[in-house]
Amino acid sequence: MIDVHLLPADLVDVADAYGWQIRHGDAAFAGTPEAPVLEVTATDGAVETIDADHYLVATGASAWAPPIDGLEEAGYLTSTTAMELTKVPDSLLVLGGGYVAINLAKALRRHLRAGRVRLTVVDRDNFQYFHGLVPEMLVGKLQPLDPLSPSRRLFAPGDFVNAEVEQLELDKKQVIVSRFIDGRRLTLDYDHIVLALGTTETLGRF
Question: Do 137 and 144 touch, CB atoms closer than 8 A?
Fold first, then answer.
Protein backbone atom coordinates (compact mmCIF):
# COMPACT_ATOMS: atom_id res chain seq x y z
CA MET A 1 0.00 0.00 0.00
CA ILE A 2 1.24 3.49 -0.87
CA ASP A 3 0.17 6.56 1.06
CA VAL A 4 1.04 9.75 -0.76
CA HIS A 5 0.02 13.34 -1.28
CA LEU A 6 1.33 13.62 -4.84
CA LEU A 7 2.44 10.81 -7.11
CA PRO A 8 3.94 11.25 -10.62
CA ALA A 9 1.70 10.02 -13.42
CA ASP A 10 4.16 7.34 -14.55
CA LEU A 11 4.26 5.86 -11.05
CA VAL A 12 0.46 5.77 -10.94
CA ASP A 13 0.57 3.41 -13.92
CA VAL A 14 3.12 1.23 -12.15
CA ALA A 15 0.95 1.13 -9.02
CA ASP A 16 -2.09 0.11 -11.07
CA ALA A 17 -0.11 -2.63 -12.79
CA TYR A 18 0.92 -4.14 -9.45
CA GLY A 19 -2.47 -3.66 -7.86
CA TRP A 20 -1.18 -1.25 -5.22
CA GLN A 21 -3.69 0.94 -3.43
CA ILE A 22 -3.06 4.68 -3.46
CA ARG A 23 -4.19 7.15 -0.83
CA HIS A 24 -3.93 10.89 -1.57
CA GLY A 25 -3.50 13.00 1.55
CA ASP A 26 -1.28 13.96 4.45
CA ALA A 27 0.13 11.05 6.45
CA ALA A 28 1.24 10.98 10.07
CA PHE A 29 2.26 8.19 12.40
CA ALA A 30 0.07 7.49 15.42
CA GLY A 31 -0.24 4.68 17.93
CA THR A 32 2.84 3.66 19.89
CA PRO A 33 6.45 2.86 18.93
CA GLU A 34 5.64 -0.81 19.58
CA ALA A 35 2.43 -0.73 17.52
CA PRO A 36 2.56 2.19 15.07
CA VAL A 37 -0.27 2.99 12.68
CA LEU A 38 -0.51 5.50 9.88
CA GLU A 39 -3.26 8.09 9.78
CA VAL A 40 -3.98 9.56 6.33
CA THR A 41 -6.05 12.73 6.15
CA ALA A 42 -7.68 13.13 2.74
CA THR A 43 -8.38 16.46 1.04
CA ASP A 44 -12.00 16.30 2.23
CA GLY A 45 -10.89 15.91 5.85
CA ALA A 46 -11.67 12.22 6.14
CA VAL A 47 -9.13 10.28 8.21
CA GLU A 48 -8.20 6.67 7.47
CA THR A 49 -6.08 4.58 9.81
CA ILE A 50 -3.76 2.06 8.17
CA ASP A 51 -2.05 -0.77 10.03
CA ALA A 52 0.88 -2.53 8.37
CA ASP A 53 3.72 -4.83 9.34
CA HIS A 54 6.30 -2.49 7.80
CA TYR A 55 6.33 1.15 6.68
CA LEU A 56 8.59 2.56 3.98
CA VAL A 57 9.16 6.31 4.17
CA ALA A 58 10.14 7.52 0.68
CA THR A 59 9.44 11.25 0.76
CA GLY A 60 12.53 12.32 -1.13
CA ALA A 61 15.81 13.85 -0.10
CA SER A 62 17.57 17.20 -0.05
CA ALA A 63 21.22 18.17 -0.25
CA TRP A 64 23.12 17.80 3.00
CA ALA A 65 25.28 20.68 4.24
CA PRO A 66 27.80 20.34 7.07
CA PRO A 67 27.01 22.29 10.28
CA ILE A 68 29.51 25.10 9.72
CA ASP A 69 28.96 28.52 11.30
CA GLY A 70 28.33 31.17 8.68
CA LEU A 71 27.78 28.73 5.83
CA GLU A 72 24.20 29.78 5.16
CA GLU A 73 25.10 33.48 5.21
CA ALA A 74 28.13 33.00 2.96
CA GLY A 75 26.05 31.13 0.42
CA TYR A 76 26.61 27.86 -1.41
CA LEU A 77 25.15 25.91 -4.29
CA THR A 78 23.52 22.48 -4.31
CA SER A 79 22.77 20.01 -7.10
CA THR A 80 19.57 21.98 -7.77
CA THR A 81 20.72 25.60 -7.50
CA ALA A 82 23.94 24.96 -9.44
CA MET A 83 21.86 23.98 -12.45
CA GLU A 84 19.79 27.16 -12.08
CA LEU A 85 22.72 29.55 -12.62
CA THR A 86 21.92 32.03 -15.38
CA LYS A 87 25.54 33.08 -15.84
CA VAL A 88 28.63 30.91 -16.17
CA PRO A 89 30.80 31.61 -13.10
CA ASP A 90 34.51 32.33 -13.34
CA SER A 91 35.29 29.35 -11.13
CA LEU A 92 33.30 26.54 -9.56
CA LEU A 93 34.56 24.38 -6.71
CA VAL A 94 32.66 21.15 -6.09
CA LEU A 95 33.07 19.24 -2.83
CA GLY A 96 32.17 15.64 -3.60
CA GLY A 97 32.90 13.66 -6.74
CA GLY A 98 29.62 11.83 -7.31
CA TYR A 99 26.89 12.24 -9.90
CA VAL A 100 26.36 15.93 -9.11
CA ALA A 101 29.96 16.72 -10.03
CA ILE A 102 29.80 14.47 -13.10
CA ASN A 103 26.67 16.20 -14.41
CA LEU A 104 28.15 19.65 -13.76
CA ALA A 105 31.32 18.73 -15.64
CA LYS A 106 29.23 17.48 -18.53
CA ALA A 107 27.05 20.61 -18.59
CA LEU A 108 30.09 22.92 -18.48
CA ARG A 109 32.37 20.96 -20.81
CA ARG A 110 32.00 23.37 -23.71
CA HIS A 111 32.81 26.35 -21.46
CA LEU A 112 35.71 24.47 -19.86
CA ARG A 113 37.29 23.75 -23.22
CA ALA A 114 36.90 27.38 -24.22
CA GLY A 115 38.53 28.53 -20.97
CA ARG A 116 35.47 30.50 -19.84
CA VAL A 117 35.19 28.70 -16.50
CA ARG A 118 37.47 26.82 -14.12
CA LEU A 119 36.03 23.70 -12.51
CA THR A 120 37.71 21.99 -9.57
CA VAL A 121 36.32 18.82 -7.97
CA VAL A 122 37.51 17.60 -4.56
CA ASP A 123 36.78 14.06 -3.41
CA ARG A 124 38.26 11.44 -1.10
CA ASP A 125 37.97 8.75 -3.78
CA ASN A 126 39.84 8.99 -7.06
CA PHE A 127 37.34 6.89 -8.99
CA GLN A 128 33.64 6.52 -9.67
CA TYR A 129 31.97 3.11 -9.67
CA PHE A 130 28.76 3.00 -11.70
CA HIS A 131 26.56 0.71 -9.64
CA GLY A 132 23.93 0.57 -12.38
CA LEU A 133 26.25 -1.76 -14.28
CA VAL A 134 26.61 -4.27 -11.43
CA PRO A 135 23.90 -6.63 -12.84
CA GLU A 136 25.81 -6.89 -16.12
CA MET A 137 28.97 -7.65 -14.16
CA LEU A 138 27.24 -10.36 -12.09
CA VAL A 139 26.05 -12.22 -15.17
CA GLY A 140 29.48 -12.04 -16.79
CA LYS A 141 28.80 -9.44 -19.48
CA LEU A 142 31.29 -7.05 -17.86
CA GLN A 143 34.52 -7.51 -15.95
CA PRO A 144 34.57 -6.33 -12.29
CA LEU A 145 36.64 -3.24 -13.15
CA ASP A 146 34.62 -2.21 -16.23
CA PRO A 147 32.13 -0.02 -14.26
CA LEU A 148 35.04 1.85 -12.66
CA SER A 149 36.13 5.19 -14.15
CA PRO A 150 39.09 7.34 -12.99
CA SER A 151 37.91 10.69 -11.64
CA ARG A 152 40.55 12.66 -13.52
CA ARG A 153 39.17 11.36 -16.80
CA LEU A 154 35.54 11.97 -15.77
CA PHE A 155 36.06 15.63 -14.87
CA ALA A 156 38.46 16.57 -17.65
CA PRO A 157 39.15 19.22 -18.83
CA GLY A 158 38.31 20.35 -15.30
CA ASP A 159 40.67 19.78 -12.38
CA PHE A 160 40.36 16.94 -9.87
CA VAL A 161 41.94 16.93 -6.42
CA ASN A 162 42.01 13.67 -4.47
CA ALA A 163 42.03 15.15 -0.99
CA GLU A 164 40.37 15.59 2.38
CA VAL A 165 38.70 18.92 3.16
CA GLU A 166 40.26 20.43 6.27
CA GLN A 167 38.84 23.94 6.48
CA LEU A 168 36.47 26.36 4.78
CA GLU A 169 37.54 30.01 4.79
CA LEU A 170 34.16 31.46 3.87
CA ASP A 171 35.16 35.11 4.13
CA LYS A 172 38.10 34.54 1.78
CA LYS A 173 36.21 32.11 -0.50
CA GLN A 174 38.88 29.50 -0.01
CA VAL A 175 38.93 25.81 0.91
CA ILE A 176 41.97 24.20 2.51
CA VAL A 177 42.50 20.53 1.67
CA SER A 178 45.20 17.90 2.25
CA ARG A 179 46.11 15.60 -0.64
CA PHE A 180 46.00 11.87 0.03
CA ILE A 181 49.02 11.07 -2.09
CA ASP A 182 51.50 13.11 -0.02
CA GLY A 183 49.58 14.97 2.70
CA ARG A 184 50.38 18.32 1.09
CA ARG A 185 48.00 21.11 2.06
CA LEU A 186 46.48 23.12 -0.76
CA THR A 187 44.43 26.30 -0.74
CA LEU A 188 41.71 26.35 -3.40
CA ASP A 189 39.99 29.58 -4.39
CA TYR A 190 36.48 29.68 -5.75
CA ASP A 191 33.83 31.98 -7.14
CA HIS A 192 30.97 29.61 -6.29
CA ILE A 193 31.12 26.51 -4.11
CA VAL A 194 28.89 23.47 -4.67
CA LEU A 195 28.22 21.12 -1.77
CA ALA A 196 27.69 17.63 -3.19
CA LEU A 197 28.38 15.69 -0.02
CA GLY A 198 25.26 13.54 0.02
CA THR A 199 21.62 13.94 0.95
CA THR A 200 19.33 13.78 3.94
CA GLU A 201 15.75 12.54 4.08
CA THR A 202 13.04 15.15 3.63
CA LEU A 203 10.59 13.81 6.20
CA GLY A 204 8.48 16.96 6.27
CA ARG A 205 7.83 17.04 2.53
CA PHE A 206 4.33 15.57 2.68
Answer: yes
